């Protein structure tokens, strides 16, 4: 179990998001390759080279899908930790750290003063740092 800091939580979510995007791009590339290799092969005999390529692609696709599922599960868990905060604290932190809004934009979006947005930030971060992940 890791004692979580807010910075660690948000870094993990960002890193996971980047990994998911990359692995999904890899999966799309492999799907395109498989489609090109197998296009027009219906009913035609083909050698073991083609079968090996398709088999390798299928194995890589399965691994990528498994990796994506694991990353998404971890991201969902980390987001549930964030979402366990009271609504105002969650809203402020999500808008700033996940959506990339400035604190002025957060305040405007939440219809509160900038000082109140900072107060939500401070109390939300303190709550996160007391949680274990």
Helices and strands in order:
Blueprint: H1 6-38, H2 48-83, H3 87-98, H4 103-110, H5 114-129
Helix pairs in contact: 1-2, 3-4, 3-5, 4-5
What's the quick description here?
The chain has 133 residues and is an all-alpha fold. The protein is 79% helix and 0% strand.
Q: Which terms summarize this structure?
A:
133 residues, mainly alpha, 5 helices, 0% strand
Task: Describe it.
With 133 residues, the chain is mainly α. The protein is 79% helix and 0% strand. The chain has 5 helices and no strands. It has helices spanning 6-38, 48-83, 87-98, 103-110, 114-129. Helix 1 (6-38) runs antiparallel to helix 2 (48-83) and helix 3 crosses helix 5 (114-129). The longest helix has 36 residues, at 48-83. The mean pLDDT is 85.
What share of the residues lie within helices?
Answer: over 70%
- Poorly predicted sequence stretches spanning 5 or more consecutive residues: none
Q: What is the makeup of the main sheet?
A: none
Total DSSP helices: 5
Number of strands: 0
Category by helix and strand content: mainly alpha
Mean pLDDT: 85
Strand content: under 5%
Encode the helix/strand succession as letters.
Answer: HHHHH
Distance between the termini: 6 Å
Radius of gyration: 22 Å
The general outline is elongated
